Amino acid sequence: MYGLPEERNRSQPAEPEDTALRDSFEATIAADERIEPRDWMPDEYRTTLVRQIAQHAHSEIIGMQPEGNWITRAPSLQRKAILMAKVQDEAGHGMYLYSAAETLGVSRDQLVELLLAGKQKYSSIFNYPTLSWADMGAIGWLVDGAAIMNQIPLTRCSYGPYARAMVRVCKEESFHQRQGFEILHTLSHGTGAQHEMAQDAVNRWWWPSLMMFGPPDDESPHTAQSMAWKIKRFTNDELRQRFVDICVPQAAVLELTLPDPDLRLDEPTGNYRYGEIDWEEFKRVLKGDGPCNRQRLEHRTRAHEEGRWVREAAAAYAAKRARAEERLAA
Amino acid sequence: MSATATSTSDVALYALRLGDDALILAQRLGEWSSMAPELEEDIALTNIALDLLGQARFLLTLAGELEGSGRDEDELAFGRGEREFYNCLLVEQPNVDFAHTIARQLLFSTYQLALYEPLTGSADSGLAGIAAKAVKEVAYHRDHAVKWSLRLGDGTAASHSRMQDAIERLWPYTHELFESDELVERLAVGGVAVNPAGLCDSWGQFIGATLGEATVTVPETSWRPSGGRRGEHTEAFGHMLAEMQWLHRSHPGASW
Ligand SMILES: [Fe+2]
Ligand SMILES: [Fe+2]
């Protein structure tokens, strides 16, 4: 079995630094080439990647819940089919990402245990509830939209398996974003009640979406190192700005208002200036006191526990079959 | 092809029965989203649900066209009351646990495959086309259910007893699958429908062999609940429909 990178560090005496290996790692990064699983890498690089990829994988899996909440109530059969396919894509994203993490020496089971024990995080955005059908639109437009903004640069991440997983993921995310936009567009241009539903959803999801890019640059401790390692290509604030600039004209097409009275175009830069983000709320939700933190983790734990006997049955059956085949061969 | 003209309203009703089977099972499977025992199964169950939902949409659309009263797939799915759904009782049975879900899949997909194979030759080209596409999907559904039936039935003692319980609880609802009535008989004479009475033996052989290998005993039951094809359902069905239809119905005339 593999230990987590941190555990391995603890259980083994530190090797004398092999400068040739480190030089070759640095040269690969400098040349904008990919680090592959068998290449030497500094422990901190590995640890950073495991933390980031695991958190990303967990976000995909936990993220199935808020949208899964509306599958049985989707208002048309076509919408039901699209939503099911979308939530299924997220499960697939989780799988690719757990596989990418496995190339760093941690198993999916270990990571799931850490998630359920509250020792690894997932994106805080999923700790908000989906209160109406329009939330399916707002999540697709804003949450998947922000995810794309974060993930497209990751397709050029220095770690090969993560970069390649992101290429697959990003293709599907753009469909997610589009279907969300379409839901909102239809609602906004539908009946009065539908328009109101759409506006309410955007009001609730706008600010949490801006928080998805993480804390402001001057409070983001890992950013500098991650950028030096080319895991990260842009800072949190850069990505957030780009996201706002894309959303403002789209909101106009939707005929929906973004809930920020300070939002205005800054002529010289062409960027939209936005109001102050409530970082206290961000910290509160991150710490575990968001509206759905407990519910999301309880749900995942329940699914995991209720599925245990099934996984055990599959393992027992496979073992029986393997024994039977051995007997035949003997 | 028959000498007597087949009534389009008969075909519409028949398409509705098939469509309702698929729709209601898809709805039940949709309840599993984010709750499956492992990620791979979340994906597999959703795949099956999506196939069934696709079949349902074709069948309901066909039924609406044949009816000629302008009802589309959504009006049929969301606008009908409990007594106007014609699915069999088996597909509306609650998920309960993974064993019940797999047992329901095994019993239903084996029936559906046996039915859709001959339906590909239906005198109604609409039905034949839908069946031809569905056969490939349903063959996969049955394969999936067989694999899991073996794992659960012949896995651990705990999984075996759950699988045995599930088969015992669901078995009575299988009799209805093979019931015939005047509508089906009329349509079968015209080469449009498949008379399910004729599928019972091959279904029984396949299920018997699978359950035998899974070390699950086929129960003997005298209770033969039925009524789905006449719109008489189990109590759980109304709750399920209420959940499915509530949003659509609370905004009359709206588009989504
Ligand atoms: Fe995703
Ligand atoms: Fe997505």
Structural class of chain B: mainly alpha
Which blocks of ≥5 consecutive residues of chain B have pLDDT under 50?
Answer: none
**DSSP strand (E) fraction of chain B?**
under 5%
Which outline of chain B best applies?
A: globular
Biggest pleated sheet of chain B: none
Radius of gyration of chain A: 22 Å
Helical run tally of chain A: 14
Quaternary assembly: heterodimer
* Fraction of residues in helix of chain B: 55-70%
Q: Tell me the radius of gyration of chain B.
A: 18 Å
The counted number of beta strands of chain B is 0
Structure in words:
The complex is a heterodimer of chains A (330) and B (256). By secondary structure, chain A is an all-alpha fold. Chain A is globular, with a radius of gyration of 22 Å. Chain A starts with a helix and ends with a helix. The model of chain A is unreliable at 5-14 (pLDDT under 50). Chain A has 14 helices and 2 strands. In chain A, strands 1-2 form a two-stranded antiparallel sheet. Chain B has 256 residues and is mostly helical. Chain B has a single domain, classed as Ferritin (Up-down Bundle), CATH 1.20.1260.10. The relative contact order of chain B is 0.15. Chains A and B meet through helix 4, helix 5, helix 8, helix 13 and helix 14 of A and helix 1, helix 2, helix 3, helix 6 and helix 7 of B. One fe (ii) ion binds at residues 60, 90, 93, 169, 173 of chain A.
Short description:
The complex is a heterodimer of chains A (330) and B (256). Chain A is mostly helical and 330 residues long. Helices cover 66% and strands 2% of the residues of chain A.
